[in-house]
Amino acid sequence: MKFSQEQMERYSRHIILNEVGVKGQIKLLESKVLIIGTGGLGAPAAMYLAAAGVGTIGLVDADTVELSNLQRQIIHSTKDVGKPKVISGKETINDMNPDVKVMTYHEWVSSANITDIIKDQDYDFIIDGTDNFPAKFLINDACVLLHKPFSHAGIIRFSGQTMTYVPGQGPCYRCVFLNPPAPDLVPSCKEAGVLGVMGGIMGTIQASEAIKYLLGIGDLLTGRLLVFEALDMEFRTVKLASRTNCVVCGENPTLKDLIDYEQRACEL
Amino acid sequence: MRVTIKLFATLREGRFKVENWELPARASVKHVFERLGIKQEEIAIILVNGRDTQVEYELQEGDAISLFPPVGGG
Question: What is the pLDDT of residues A149-180, one digit of tens each?
Fold first, then answer.
C-alpha cells in the first residue's frame, strides 16, 4: 500500500508517533472494526476510528435518529432526525474521511444474525456500544465463540465502566457479570438519564482500545474494569479474574448456542 | 467493629458515596446488603480492601467494602 500526499498529510500526527509510524497507519487503513450500536458510546467511537483512518467500519443499529438522541449521539445532526442511525452515521463518516469504507447493518443484533454480521467482513475488533444487557451478553458470547476481541462499555447517569476482552488473555464479560440482571432491577438510561459526555468519555476509551489492539501497542483493559465517576472526576481500576468455570470461556464451556435474553418493552 | 462502605454508579442513588458504619462482630457482606436494601443480584463486583470477595465473607475491623453494580446503558 502506498500513501498519497493527501494521506501523508491527513495522518501526519499519527505517523510522527514512533508507536504508529507509516507501518501502523497502513495497518489501521487495512483494519476492520465493527461497532454495535451507534448511540452514546458508538457515535464517538465511530467518529474517532474514522478520523484515525480505520479502513473498514461496520455500523449496526435498527434505530432511527430521534431528537432526544442529539444531546449525546454526536455522529447525528438535527437534519438527520427520522433517518436510520446507520445511514446518518455513514454520511458523517464519509464527510469526515473518504478513506473509510462504511458497512451498514440496519438491524438489532440477535442470536440469529450476530455471527453473520461479525463474519461479514471478518472484523478484527468489535465495539459494544449497545444500551442493554441482553445485547451486551450476546456480543460477549458471540465474540468468545468466534475468538474475536471486543471492548465492552456501559454508561448511566454520571457513571461509566469499560473492559476489553482478548481471547486467551483474561476474563470475558460473563466471567465478571455472570448473567443479565433481572429486567426491572437495573435502570436504563431512558429511565435514569445520562450525562451526554459520558458516551464521549467511555466511547473514546473504547476507540483507544481498538486502535491499541490493532497496532499491538500498550496495555489493554484485559483483566481490568475501568470505572469512571464523573461527579467525583475519578477513574478507578478493578482487577478482574477469569473464571475457570465460566460457561462460555471457561475450561469446560457449556454455552454453545447464543441466547436472546428478555428485553424490557420500554427499551425497544 | 468499624467498616467503610463505598458505593458506585447507580447504587449511590438515594443512598451515599462513602459511609463509616458500626457493625456487630462477625457481620458478613450479606449483612451490608441487607442494611443497604440491595439485592445480591444488583451487585456485580464486591471488593473488600481492593480484593474480589464473596457475599459470605466475614468482615474484619477496618475493612473497606466497595460495591459496583453492572452498568448497561449506552
Answer: 999 999 999 999 999 999 999 999 999 999 99
Name the fold adopted by B2-68.
Ubiquitin-like (UB roll) (3.10.20)
Write out pLDDT tens, residues A199-246: 999 999 999 999 999 999 999 999 999 999 999 999 999 999 999 999
Yes or no, beta carbons of A160 and B71 under 8 Å apart: yes
Within a domain: residue A267? no
Instruction: Compare all CA atoms of chain A with the CA of B46 and give the residue at the minimum distance.
Output: A238
Binary contact (A185, B10; C-beta < 8 A): no
User: Which of A54, A28, A46 lies closest to A215, judged by CA?
Assistant: A28
Q: Write the CATH number for A178.
A: 3.40.50.720
Q: How many interface pairs between A and B have CB atoms less than 8 angstroms apart?
A: 85
Q: What is the pTM of this model?
A: 0.96
Cβ count within 10 A of residue A212: 17
| Domain boundary assignment for chain B | 2-68
Q: Answer yes or no: are the C-beta atoms of A151 and A124 closer than 8 Å.
A: no
